[in-house]
Amino acid sequence: MTQNGDDATLVRRPGIPDLRMAPEEAEPAPPQDPRADQPPQELPLDRNQAILEAAKQVGALLKRKGHLFALAGSVAAYAHGGEKNMQHDVDFAIRPEDAEAVAATLREAGLTVYTPPEDWLIKATCFGQPVDIIFELAHRPVGADMLKRAEELSVDSVRMPVLAPTDLLWSLTAAFSEHHCDFGAALPIARALREKVDWELVRRECGDEPMPAAFFFLLERLNVI
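C-alpha cells predicted for Nucleotidyltransferase family protein:
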C-alpha cells in the first residue's frame, strides 16, 4: 500500500561490566569511540513493507472514522493475491464529496496532507511513504456503487475494503493514454487476478480507446485472457 510504527524501535540492553580492583595508578582511558554515544540505528526498511505499513495505518484511520473508501492500486492487487511488488505509493479511492472530511481525519492523526495541482486527488505522507487519496479514477468520479462493491480483505493482518478485481483492472486499463501507458506495471496484476476479473465488462467500459485495446491485444497474445 514497511515497518510497524509501534514495534520498530530496536532496544540495546547494556551488559554488566566485569568488576575488578582499582589499580594503584590510574590507567590511561582508552580512546573514545565517536559512535559510543549514538543511539542504535534501526535496520533499513524494505520498501514494499514500508508501503504496506502506510496502507495499514491510513486504512485503519479511515475505517475507524467510518469513511466510505477502498484500497486501490498495487497494494489492492497484493491484497487479492498478487505479487508483493508495490509500485510507488499507496492508493485509496474515496468519493469526491468526502475529500475534505478524509483530509481532516488524516491531519488529526498527525499526517501531512496537501493538495497537488491535479484536481482529482489529495496527497498525504505516512511513515515516509506517499499516499494518494483519489476521488477520480480513469477520468470518472469515484461513486458509492464502486466502493460498496469493494471486498473486505486482510492487508498484512489489517482488514479493510479493497477494490473488487474487475473495478481494479478497469481503473488501471482505462487510465492508459498516449501520455501514460505503462503496460509493464499492469501486466503482472492482470496475470495474477485474471480468473477473478470480468474481462468482457472491462472491455465494454474501456470502449474504443486505442491504448486499452493495445493492452487487451497483449494480454491475448500472452494467453493471459
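The chain has two domains: 44-163, 164-224.
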